[in-house]
Amino acid sequence: MKRSFAELARESRGSSEAVIPLLQAAQTEFGFISRDTIAKIAEATGEPEAQIYGVASFYSQFSFTPSGRHIIRVCTGTACHVAGAGRIVEALSIELGVAPGGTTEDMLFTLHTVACLGCCSLSPVMMIDGETFGKLTPPGAVKVLREFAAGGPR
Amino acid sequence: MRKLLVGTGTCGLSAGAGKVIEALRNNPGEYELSGTGCIGMCFVEPLLEVRDGDSRRIYGEVTPEMALEIASGADPADHLVWSDDGRGSHADFLEKQDRLVLRNCGIINPDSMDDYIARGGYEALRMAREMTPVEIIQLIKDSGLRGRGGAGFPTGMKWSFAASAAGEDKYIICNADEGDPGAFMDRSIIEGDPHAVIEGMLIAARAIGAANGYIYCRAEYPLAVKRLENAIAQAEERGFAQGVHLKVKMGAGAFVCGEETALFRSIEGKRGMPTFRPPYPAEKGLFSKPTNNNNVETYACVPWIVRNGVKAFRERGTEKSPGTKVFALAGKVKRGGLAEVAMGTPIRHLVFGIGGGIKKDKAFKAVQMGGPSGGCIPEHLADTPVDFESIPATGAIMGSGGMVVMDETSCMVDIARFFLSFTCDESCGKCTFCRVGNRRLLETLERITAGEGREEDIPFLETLGRQIIDGSLCGLGQTAPNPILTTLRYFRNEYEAHILEKKCPAGSCRALIKFAVNPETCRGCTLCAKACPVNAVSGQRGQVHSIDDHKCTKCGACYDACPFDAIIRE
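Predict the joint structure of the above. Result:
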């Protein structure tokens, strides 16, 4: 069972080893790392806030701004790249009106590119939340997104 | 009783295996249902295997409805991909392999320790515990096993360093931070046979005298993490761990953490920045204690070697690179998936024998090996055997086993640019040459692919590339220019075409191509106009269409949409 941020913070007893697991729990639970979260981690682990911030900003898993309700991850790994991932990203960017890394104004979608989702034989691939969509074309990806959005907030 | 197995690795689930297994679960019948790891035939996922007594049949591209029919006895021949009586459209995909590391993948239920034990699991650990640490290390040395993470360092020697290091507290690490885009061997091994990795680590722990260990796994592999945690809990519960504490640590999305010193910093809760060696990890590694770090596949080899002996291992592979290697075959190949072959097998056998050749029968151009640290090996060197001597001689690296196949439509300058943009993002920033130098290389490549290349760019790329190799501390920087240097070596003509003629021979770089309609073949079906996202295509139904160059973003949607090949890319 995954433990909550609060539980992990109680158990970490001044150990630097807990910094990354705490950041991960916070990212999952709150969707981003706030100033307040950094202060709490500093208190729990005994590490300075600057050190926590340094760690959080180093790893791409952590973000300092709130994410949309649904996360779109377009794979831009090697196999997807040669299969035209760049065009998928472009088509989704146009559709959503945000650049990769951005969140739509209604806070519904955040568009990310990732290095490899590891299902190369389905390339090009994207994930919306936990669901994978493969063998995409630019119009196909837009269609998937529209259908997902029409399914309403899940 | 009949047994039904669904391939529920990440690749299978992505292709819809979850719905297949759910349909079967909701309609129980006269069979036992189980999930299994990656069978390796990723190109026909989702896969369903039927075991009837001794006979085995695997069906591919199975839908939930079809799964129910198969469960009630149907045998759809057009979906049969493999069977033990030699039928099946892709039977040769598995027959052409030598599966030693993947011995249990796709065979056992990875969450079941009993399945693993029934296939001889933990026998090697029992044997190792009857041996002295020195004997174990000697055995691994004799086997000639070399690190499967890419560098090929002799494993037995590495263990002996950590074993003889002074100090009581020692650590054992498994590097499962498989970051190369296009590589998924380690994930498949963990998802398909997690106990093999745990058993290998426990044997290593005995050999070097470690009581604590970590498996550092990519956060992007949630299923692998879950299966490892489950396997560790089972091993502890059944008393196999005997006081060795193993823990899974999740990475947080930094490619450089695949470098061992950076990996240690990350486990310690710090920024994952590499440190200078010496001191080597065997003396001062994790928490400044003696540490042994091996890759997933290396550990998975260990129980097999202990159980089957040095001779059987050395019967495979070459004198200097014994054993087998798992490759993740992807890209423009017909049959992408997991392929394990003896070291020394020619690249061509992987691409054409196992991979079935190039998609749409286009021309085979190159294979990219070793990801962002590796290089592109051209078609004329496709008879190069895959081993730790021959591959580096081409300028590429063995790497961990990602093999991405490129065809005539892949632009090699663009591939170099792609990898450089990856390494630029992932450089930790510690060394100036890596941080700034790679950025300059990337800018130059971006300029070339945008049609603004200059003649002096090629010598600049070569000189700076070599300087970055010399001026960087860790493997990331030392290998980052490889994709450029190998493509310059084998595909210099493509660079020259971009720079001198402002043309992209592969028809891939947008700034250098133009789309037009061939009036001879256009039937005015309007599909291209419908596909165009920027309304650059116009024309009446039944009439020849035309493309407005000023509006066209060169996205190629019309090219893909045309059923008559009437869109010309030039």
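Strands of chain A lie at 70-75, 109-114, 126-128, 131-133.
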